[in-house]
Specification:
single chain, mainly alpha, Arc Repressor Mutant, subunit A, 5 helices, globular, Sig_transdc_resp-reg_C-effctor, transcription regulation, Regulatory protein, luxR family, WH-like_DNA-bd_sf
């Protein structure tokens, strides 16, 4: 594991600390593009890299990220990625 990967893991761990675990969590539905955006970010890609992989503009990527963040009830993008991971919506 390289240092960059360890830092990302630690940030993810810290973001998950904000998560409140509940027995009856509502089902969260993200679109395929929102899931792709969250997955690329979870893998440590920058927004520019994720947009390139998805063959979309960074502006469009931001729209997908913000929509996912809203659906996940996240405070920021890192929190959204952590919530998507903890809900099993994305797997890295």
């Amino acid at each position: 594991m390289n240092v960059n990967h360890l830092v990302k893991h630690e940030l993810n761990k810290r973001a998950l600390e904000f998560e409140h675990k509940g027995d009856c969590a509502p089902t969260i539905m993200l679109s395929p593009r929102e899931l792709s955006a969250m997955t690329y970010l979870a893998k440590g890609m920058t927004r520019a890299q994720a947009a390139h992989e998805m063959d979309i503009s960074e502006h469009t990527l931001r729209v997908y990220i913000e929509a996912a963040r809203h659906k996940l009830g996240a405070l920021n993008t890192t929190h959204a990625v952590a919530r998507a991971l903890s809900h099993g919506l994305i797997i890295v």
